[in-house]
Amino acid sequence: MFAVQAKALVKTYGSTRALDGVDLSIPTGKVLGLLGPNGAGKTTTVRILTTLLRPDSGEAEVAGHDVLAQPDAVRRSIGLSGQYAAVDENLTGFENLYMVGRLYGSKKAAAKSRARELLARFRLEDAADRPAKTYSGGMRRRLDLAGALVAEPTVVILDEPTTGLDPRGRIDTWEVIKELVADGTTVLLTTQYLEEADQLADSIVVIDKGKVIARGTADELKQEIGGERLELVVANTSDLAMTTQVLTEVGSGTPTVDEHTRKVDVLVEGGPKALIEALRRLDGHGVAVQDVALHRPTLDDVFLSLTGHATDEGEKK
């Protein structure tokens, strides 16, 4: 049973094809991570699934309702937290959540109880009676996410929900998402934090330039690119050029260099053999190595391999 399904979604803006036949599906009670660089089509997909935008062609269902034929039913079934906190800054945190509850048709007592419950859940109790305009950016993001959960929706769509949060706020948000899924809620998560997708997503869809370019679990995607990542830290900055040359020769990709930490890393096949060979060659050139590490590929490696650039690069919206 799928809580969200989209088939062959197409959306164009003039000569720009924002979506070019996107397919995705999310089983009930699971988390799908939608990854892609800026301008890839993530937010366009979210806007279609939340009935805020009509596709040029294709079809989609959310919670069993057609987004084009039954938009009101879709809206009653979902919670949405967008990239920017949608809160009324002149209302208090409590008033914001109470207002959302009343708009969804809750009785006064139920709306008040739900507002207090969510304020506690997101560590906003101490600021509950302060105007939202006095909140920090991270507090507004947490209030916005709380607002998306007021009606206890069966499907929650989170468009980069932890943008602007500090590490504690991000971890707290992850815990809330895990609790939602444990209760049977289905989640569509767009994110540029690959660690976030690794932590939360049951499956991942990667889109770039409006097209799906990969899909699978985090482990499946990591296995697709193969190899491991070899990292070396050298004692002297002057040895970075030689180290980069050696890792280019033993590696299976282009090394990355961090001059500040004197670290050079590269994807390699046959990790231990490549490590031994790199150290042998560097020793022959008199390069002093301070630290060595060999890691499995990360989602960052997958993303770089698939799109050719990191998540924070690419065309801006």
Automatic annotation (TrEMBL):
It is a peripheral membrane protein. It holds the Pfam family ABC_tran. GO terms for molecular function: ATP binding; ATP hydrolysis activity. Keywords: Antibiotic resistance, ATP-binding, Cell membrane, Hydrolase, Membrane, Nucleotide-binding, Translocase, Transport. GO terms for biological process: daunorubicin transport; doxorubicin transport; response to antibiotic. Signal peptide: none annotated. Residues 4-234 form the ABC transporter domain. GO terms for cellular component: plasma membrane. It is found in: Cell membrane. Its EC number is 3.6.3.-. Its main location: membrane. InterPro entries: AAA+_ATPase (IPR003593), ABC_transporter-like_ATP-bd (IPR003439), ABC_transporter-like_CS (IPR017871), ABC_transporter_ATP-binding (IPR050763), DrrA (IPR005894), DrrA1/2-like_C (IPR025302), P-loop_NTPase (IPR027417). It is an enzyme of class 3 (hydrolase). PROSITE patterns: ABC_TRANSPORTER_1, ABC_TRANSPORTER_2. NCBIfam families: drrA. Belongs to the ABC transporter superfamily. Drug exporter-1 (DrugE1) (TC 3.A.1.105) family. PANTHER family: ABC TRANSPORTER ATP-BINDING PROTEIN, DOXORUBICIN RESISTANCE ATP-BINDING PROTEIN DRRA. This is ATP-binding protein. It comes from Amycolatopsis japonica.
